[in-house]
Amino acid sequence: MATLDIAKALDSIKDWQEESYVHLHKNPELSMQESETCDFIERELEKFGYKVQRIGGGVVGVLENGEGATVLFRADIDGLPVKENTGLDYASTITRTDENGNEVPAMHACGHDFHIMANLGAARVLSDNTDTWSGAHIALFQPGEETAAGAKSMVDDGLVDKLPKPDVAFGQHVLAGPMRAGQVGTHAGPILSTGASIKVTLHGKGSHGSMPHMGVDPVVLASSIVLRLQTVVSREINPFDMAVLTVGSIQAGSKSNIIPDTATLLINIRAYDMDVREQLLEGIKRVVNTECEASNCPQDPEFEVYDSYPLTDNSAEITEKVTKAFVEHFGEDRVMDCGEVSASEDFSFIPDAFGIDYCYWGFGGFEEDAQTYPNHNPAFGPVMEPTLRTGTEAAIVACMAWLKG
C-alpha cells in the first residue's frame, strides 16, 4: 500500500479549499435553514465520488474503499444571527430570515465554515489517494448545532439505518484558545460541558406604579430570583465540580408607572457531569417556586427547557491513539492537552445513536500575540492559514490512524 503524502495532497487543493472557504464565510445560513450550504457540500462530495444522501437537514457522503474500518467524521455547518465586525475583506454582509420571520444579520461567528472545509478537504484528499488506505470514510455535515436541533434531526430521520455502522466517530472545533493557529488540542474524558437553557415565566398581578400594594410585582420577584440563583452554584454544588448558571435575559414591563403581569427569565447552565446538571435544574425550579410562593403569586411559574446539549465525553483509548497520531504528524510542539472547555456541542448524539466511542478535539485559530476574540463574538475571525490547513490535516491524520490497515 502506498504512503499518503499529506503535505503534497494539501498543496494540490489549497486554492480550491481557500476559495471555497471564502464563499462559505460570505454566505452563512442560520440553524436548520442551511439549504445553499448543503447544495454546495453535496456537489463537492459527488465530484469526489462519494455516495451522497440528505438526512435530517444535513448531508452525508460515504466512500467505500475495500475492507477495513469505517470512520465517521462530522462537521457542523450553521451560522449565527450576528452582525460581523471582523474587518476581513471577505466578511459576511448578508441577512437571513430567522425562525420568527425577522431579517437578521448572519455570520459564521463560531467557525463552522472552517469545519465544513476541513471535512471536505479530508474527503477530497482521501478520494484522490485511495491507494493509501482501506476501509470506508463517512463525511457527515450536520445542521443546527447552534440550537442543539441538528444531530437529533439526523438521528430521527433514520441516520443509523441509512449508513454503515462506523467503528469510531470524530469531530473538531476551531477555538480562540488555549491553542494557537497551527496547534491542536486533545483531552481524554469530558471535554465539552453538558448544557441547557431554561425559560422561566413568572406570573404577577398588574397594577399602577403608584399602587404596588394592589398588585404582585414580577420585576421585584425576578430580581430576587436572579440574586438567589447565584447561591445554587456557590453554596449547593461541590466546589470541585464545574458548574455555571447564567441569567442572560430579564424581560418585563413596558412603562415606568405600570407594574406588569409577567416577567420572563432566560437561564443557561453548564456542567461536566450529568448529576450536576440535574442538581442545577432542580435548584433553579426550587428557588423559583419558593420565591413565587413568598411573593404570593396568583399562578405557578412555568418552566421550558430548550437547546439541551449532551456531555461530550471522549474515549480515553481512542483519544490516546488520536493524540499519538497527531504528535507523529505535527510534532510535540503543536499538540497539547486543551483541558476541559465550558462550551457545549450536540455532536455526541450521533456516535451515541450508533453505540460507538468517539474523540472530539480543538484546533487554534489565532496567531501568537494576536488579539483574540471568543466564538460567537462579532469580531471572531480566525486567520485563514494555517487554521484551515491544520483542521484539514487533523481530520486526515485521525481518520488514517484507523483506515491505513
Automatic annotation (TrEMBL):
Q: Which GO terms describe its molecular function?
A: metal ion binding; N-acetyldiaminopimelate deacetylase activity
Record: residues binding Mn(2+) 1: 173
Q: Extract the coiled-coil ranges from the record.
A: none
Domain of life, per lineage: Bacteria
- Name assigned to this protein: Amidohydrolase
UniProt keywords (A-Z) are: Hydrolase, Manganese, Metal-binding
Q: Where does Mn(2+) 2 bind?
A: 110, 112, 146, 376
Question: What are its cofactors?
Answer: Mn(2+)
Q: Name one GO biological process term.
A: diaminopimelate biosynthetic process
Q: What SUPFAM superfamilies has UniProt attached to this entry? A: Bacterial exopeptidase dimerisation domain, Zn-dependent exopeptidases
Domain Peptidase M20 dimerisation spans what residues? Answer: 196-293
Fetch the PANTHER family from UniProt.
Answer: METALLOPEPTIDASE, PUTATIVE (AFU_ORTHOLOGUE AFUA_6G09600)-RELATED, PEPTIDASE M20 FAMILY MEMBER
Sorted alphabetically, which Pfam families does this protein's record hold?
Answer: M20_dimer, Peptidase_M20
What remark does the entry make about the cofactor?
The Mn(2+) ion enhances activity.
